[in-house]
Write a structure and sequence with these properties.
CATH class of the largest domain in chain A: Mainly Beta
Oligomer: heterotrimer
Number of strands of chain B: 5
Order of helices and strands of chain B: EHEHEHEHEH
CATH topology of the largest domain in chain A: OB fold (Dihydrolipoamide Acetyltransferase, E2P)
Number of helices of chain B: 5
Largest sheet of chain A: 5 strands, antiparallel
CATH architecture of the largest domain in chain A: Beta Barrel
Order of helices and strands of chain A: EHEEEEEEEE
Strand content of chain B: 15-25%
CATH topology of chain B: Rossmann fold
Distance between the termini of chain A: 26 Å
Strand order of the largest sheet of chain B: 3-2-1-4-5
Shape of chain B: globular
Number of strands of chain A: 9
Structural class of chain A: mainly beta
Helix content of chain A: under 10%
Number of domains of chain B: 1
Radius of gyration of chain A: 16 Å
CATH class of chain B: Alpha Beta
Strand order of the largest sheet of chain A: 7-6-5-8-9
Largest interface: A-C, 42 and 39 residues
CATH architecture of chain B: 3-Layer(aba) Sandwich
CATH superfamily of chain B: HAD superfamily/HAD-like
Bound molecules: zinc ion
Number of domains of chain A: 2
């Protein structure tokens, strides 16, 4: 079954536009030089909104840990159960993390600690989401 | 050939919480017709066994909701049915090769049409 | 009447010092309705409204307080499924009845105005709207009484549950993820404290050693304590304590989170009565005193909180509570944190260092004697896991332990101070109670 489709809002539109161009861009505060994801109206460190800019990051990360969704509440994903939900930290700044279903990895077999690379998955015509694939 | 019927409890049987529409008499009739019957629920096995002991119905199996695969392995039958009231019942049934039926008075056709 | 919006009651920062009303506010009564699995949508004697009235009457009766003496009502006016339940927590449309059950209020929601009308309170001068959950309400009422905003204040926490599976449908049935959900739902996280805490819990097991099923003795002990709680769901519905085998063979919800790690949504209401320590002397019940309250609402730094964040947050909660109460870990006799999911409880136990338990020690502590009659009567209430998702067992047990009225649950160790909460690592509130004013 297809995944649930994200609906961009004013704040997140540049993020999803970039994803649709197969790029991962995160907010970066010029003053603090700190990456921020998900996007917020202001820098969570210094509170400044002016210094935030979109910065493309390198799509490399690691699997910190994972769970297997066996009895979730999302109608659209029920046929997928059981499926992996991994926590992926970004190598460039491990305090930034992402969720991933680790496409291609069977349920219960996610390699904790493994390196992963950014990939993209179409969830609706013209709408991609960022995903992570175990690095070869 | 034999039919195997697995009954969920809560939301399915009259003794469930919430009560469902499948009466204990219907369960007795299924057994009398020669079906292999048992319960499959999130209740502990000991709690399920107590229900059947109280009702005076000898069940062939009492398993947890995610253990239908073991039932299929243990009991050869021509057709396998699981009667339950949730999406999860459907998922576990279909994943393990059981026909899934919602609790409905029509399920009596499973055993009334001869076995 | 005062709204919660302009009354500064929160103690939600570090370094606030000893609470200015320490020992000057008392809890003088509590009341519980029956705890049902669901409301049947028909019987008006068992609706959330009827149950809330019942709980209030019991709390007032315990203290010998009459309707005309109550001048404050702090009533949680949101559904227990709360913001994270989103639209999935709304079962409407449904049939309504004659007044007072002619709207959602009285059925799945209760607010102060509904209660004032239904029970005929005449002298209420503090009845805020937009009231948070019980974890924060206890602090809100304590501060209101301490500040003199009201003198005799009912705190009401209704927890409704109707037919159908909890939090199914609504936005969880949507093909689209809007707002904050765009960052979680496409990958399967529909939100909730199960998701928030299961990842740090996994990291905890990796960092300190141990495995998920090391929680079994804790969960089983919660069930045992629940069977000693005469008003709770488990006791009244024959939910026998589970065995280690029952736990270890139970199915997974979010593997490794098992079904027995999750509490059971129920339909029930609870009420607590607060007043000044001075007035409490004239009431017929034995008062217990509020020694501190605090709240927290920590912001996630990224998508998913990790173990470092959770440990930092719970350290800060502990520091705030101990500082405000003028007490330390060794002074706390009764400890009733939160267990809506069993996987978050170790973070509180270690953050507050109850009975000397440090980071990474919880599973070994659980494996020891944590029974109510033993030397470490951890979570003597049985919490949500032992009583259903009322989120009130922690408070009632703490009051009863300090009064010495906990019956078969009464601990054999000293019971002069109690820490209780409805909280998650990121948000919620704590209450410190004392048998004595100081
Ligand atoms: Zn900044």
């Amino acid at each position: 079954m297809p995944k649930v489709i994200p609906v961009p809002d004013e704040l997140s539109q540049p993020f999803w536009d970039a994803v649709n161009e197969r790029r991962l861009v995160l907010q970066n505060c010029a003053a603090c030089d700190k990456l921020q994801y998900p996007p917020q109206a202001a820098c969570q460190v210094c509170g400044s909104a002016d210094g935030l800019e979109w910065k493309e990051v390198e799509g490399k990360g690691h699997v910190a840990t994972y769970i297997v969704i066996e009895d979730g509440r999302l109608n659209r994903r029920m046929p997928d159960q059981p499926y992996n939900l991994a926590l992926v930290t970004l190598d460039q700044d491990p305090t930034v993390n992402f969720y991933s279903n680790l496409p291609g990895v069977p349920a219960y077999q996610a390699p904790v600690g493994a390196a992963v690379e950014l990939t993209f998955e179409e969830v609706a015509p013209g709408q991609l989401i960022h995903e992570w694939r175990v690095a070869q | 050939m034999t039919t195997l019927i697995s009954f969920d409890i809560d939301g399915t049987l009259e003794v469930g919480d919430p009560p469902g529409c499948i009466t204990l008499d219907m369960v007795r009739a299924a057994k009398a017709s020669g079906c292999i019957i048992g319960s499959c629920s999130d209740r502990t096995v000991s709690n399920q066994q107590r229900i059947w002991e109280t009702a005076g119905i000898a069940m062939e199996f009492t398993v947890l909701k995610h253990q239908l695969d073991a039932v299929k392995e243990q009991f050869p039958a021509e057709d396998y049915y699981h009667i339950g009231d949730t999406d999860l019942d459907r998922q576990y049934a279909e994943r393990n090769g059981f026909h899934f039926l919602l609790p409905d008075v029509d399920v009596v056709q499973l055993w009334e049409n001869g076995n | 009447m005062t709204s919660s919006n302009n009354f500064q009651w929160r103690r939600d920062r570090d370094g606030l010092g000893v609470w200015e009303h320490r020992g000057k506010v008392a809890v003088v009564g509590y009341g519980h309705s029956p705890v049902d699995r669901r409301w049947d949508g028909v019987n008006l004697d068992t609706s959330l409204g009827a149950y809330t009235i019942m709980a209030c009457e019991k709390a007032m009766e315990q203290a010998g307080v009459t309707i005309d003496q109550v001048d404050g009502i702090v009533c949680c006016d949101s559904h227990i499924a709360g913001g994270s339940g989103g639209s999935a927590s709304n079962w409407a449309p449904r049939p309504y009845f004659d007044p007072p059950y002619d709207s959602e209020y009285g059925i799945t929601l209760i607010n102060a105005q509904w209660l004032i009308n239904a029970m005929g309170f005449k002298n209420v001068r503090f009845a805020p709207t937009g009231v948070p959950t019980i974890g924060e309400m206890m602090g809100m009422a304590s501060q209101a009484v301490g500040d003199g905003v009201c003198n005799t204040c009912l705190v009401i926490y209704p927890t409704g549950n109707l037919e159908g599976r909890y939090r199914r449908g609504g936005e969880n049935a949507d093909d689209f993820a809007r707002g904050a959900r765009q960052w979680t739902v496409p990958w399967g996280n529909h939100g909730g404290n199960d998701f928030i805490n299961i990842f740090p819990h996994n990291q905890y097991c990796l960092k300190y050693g141990g495995e998920h099923d090391d929680l079994a003795p804790f969960v089983i002990n919660q069930h045992k304590n629940g069977m000693l709680t005469l008003w709770g769901f488990n006791y009244n519905h024959g939910i026998e304590p589970i065995s280690v085998e029952d736990y270890k063979t139970s199915r997974y919800i979010l593997n490794p989170l098992r079904i027995w790690d999750c509490d059971r949504p129920v339909n029930a209401s609870a009420a607590y009565l607060f007043t000044t320590a001075e007035r409490a002397q004239d009431m017929k019940s034995q008062p217990v005193y509020v020694l501190n309250h605090s709240q927290h609402n920590f912001r996630f730094r990224t998508t998913q909180p990790d173990l470092d964040e959770v440990e930092m947050w719970t350290d800060r909660q502990a520091a705030r509570m101990y500082e405000g109460a003028g007490l330390g870990p060794a002074d706390v006799d009764i400890f009733n944190p939160y267990d809506g999911y069993s996987i978050m409880t170790q973070f509180f136990l270690e953050g507050f260092q109850w009975h000397g338990v440090k980071r990474g020690d919880a599973f070994a502590f659980y494996a020891g004697d944590i029974s109510v009659k033993g030397p470490h009567p951890f979570f003597s209430s049985g919490g949500n896991l032992g009583n259903g998702r009322t989120r009130s067992a922690m408070y009632t047990d703490s009051i009863e332990q300090l009064r010495g009225t906990a019956g078969d649950r009464q601990v054999t160790v000293r019971a002069e101070t109690a820490l209780c909460a409805f909280t998650t690592p990121s948000s919620g509130g704590w209450l410190m109670l004392g048998k004595y004013q100081s």
